[in-house]
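Sample entry follows:

:::
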Amino acid sequence: MAALWTRSFDKKLRHFADQRISLDLDDGAKVNEIFPPQDLTAWVKSPEQSLELDVHGEDGLFSCKLIISHNSEIKKQRIDLEHLLFDGKPLFEFKQGEVQLYHDDHKPGPKYSFDRSVSALATIVSMPDNKKLTWFKEWAEKLFIVSWVAWGRTTLIG
């Protein structure tokens, strides 16, 4: 019985992982495909979804933040903020449709408008003056996240 349950669980977990974890930064996936409204925290009545990640990397701390707004009336999700800091100083910011790039020395670089339905960070290409940003992007592309959801699990008291 345990072996059967394990195989069944493994199959479901692989299916879940295949659907939800194929979040590759450069795959051009739309934010509404990756973060559907049903993923919003049920007990927090906010149309925003916030994700933060701190990574100790080459010579310092990378801090990445992503805020997604969900508009249930028009069934649309958009990126409100996507930024990356290195030791508290900016490397990249995508806010309300405007991208601001920074050089490795944190001085402002190019600024341009971008589609809020996809990750702007995914479009950044490696250049001699953005090695820190490139390092983080390559690290994040190797990231694999698994969320364990217990299918049909119940707790019996008595």
Summary: The first helix runs from residue 2 to 20. Residues 2-141 form one domain. Strands lie at 48-57, 60-71, 76-86, 89-95, 98-102, 108-113.
